[in-house]
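Please produce the structure of this protein holding acetyl coenzyme *A.
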Amino acid sequence: MSDKKATLKVDGLDETIELPVYSGTLGPDVIDVGALTSRDMFTYDPGFVSTAACESKITYIDGGKGILLHRGYPIDQLAEHSDYLETCYLLLYGELPTAEQKETFVSTVKRHTMVHEQIRTFFNGFRRDAHPMAVMCGVVGALSAFYHDSLDISDEHHRQVAAFRLIAKMPTLAAMSYKFSIGQPFMYPDNNMGYAENFLHMMFGNPCEPSNVSPVLARAMDRIFLLHADHEQNASTSTVRLAGSSGANPFACIAAGIAALWGPSHGGANEAVLEMLEEIGDVSRIDEFVSRAKDKDDPFRLMGFGHRVYKNFDPRAKVMKEAADDVLAELGIENDPLLAIAKRLEQIALEDPYFIERKLYPNVDFYSGIILKAIGIPTSMFTVIFAVGRTVGWIAHWHEMISGSYRIGRPRQLYTGHTQRDFVALDKRS
Ligand code: ACO
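Below is the modeled complex.
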């Protein structure tokens, strides 16, 4: 915080208004507009494009330079040298763990991977053809009906147990939502396996045969979780904070985050990328779709391109592209038609003035969809996997908020509806 001030002059107001300006450790200064309320004025910022809704120490993004730091560590260094659970520890506690801390953390997460047996019967209430994200919204929210001993948000121990439960159980529930949709038995977690390996085991294993998860694919899966672990105040994280600000329990808050993530402008984009590639169908039709994306009268957008914050490259996309190359080499996939469309589309869009002028680069979802498809994950599960990885980010932000001082989130509005008018009886209405 600093002594800087911004001075605001408003037409029709004699006095000028002095507003405090705060500086973070990185990034632009922010103007504290709280003093406007007492003058009966609010700021207007649809989409929160220029509003900092909170103070946070977890993640920093410089969209212009393509920088993403978790607790100060660049994402590419974490992707190369760390793993998902270690990054979870970093996000939650602020520092990289020592060897002993890491071992304790990993073994504690593993002890929570099973879900209450009655949750299995809960699944039977869904239609088999339900979208797995619909199932996840319901089941994760329902965890608060099963784990009453971690709902007291004022108790630090409860908060810690809820965090472990959510990180540990999300892959189990995600795999269950898939197994349910294809009519196969649910797989119990195997706690001898690593986090991502265990997820692939529960997704693709069956009780009749031993699982054989490729270490290369497990590493790629772990990287996908790691690259999605947190992204500061995005739509779903802000949703979790807003829900949490009312004092709601963590399972309900994370369910709210899952709902916000589902939309195609956010986490649903990885699924939408694959659907778009399938709709394009052939390299010869790319120009037609690029023209549609540029046409203002056509709602079509190139899925997997553009980002609210990154106006340079998305640093996660760079790492994801490398991971995609590893996976495709491991699986010996070179002539996949969708991959050919994706590569050509990327090339055309990067050379097209429309995309260059608007700084629309491929984002993380463009490449993650390709990897997930190569691993054999069905398209409908893509956003679920994003939700599994992002769970730690949601919890870290929720925890940061709850353990500091916070108020219920309550945005205001610019009202443009009717002024006051008298009620009209039914028989007098035209
Ligand atoms: N295809 C074509 N044109 C686009 C695209 C796109 N994917 N994205 C943005 N534009 C254009 C807009 O039409 C607009 O053009 P204009 O200035 O001529 O009107 C300009 O680029 C700026 O776009 P905005 O919509 O103002 O950008 P905003 O920051 O609001 O939206 C968003 C960002 C939602 C990500 C957008 O780029 C988009 O819809 N992309 C496709 C969906 C996607 O990939 N989402 C994943 C985001 S990453 C994540 O959640 C992990």
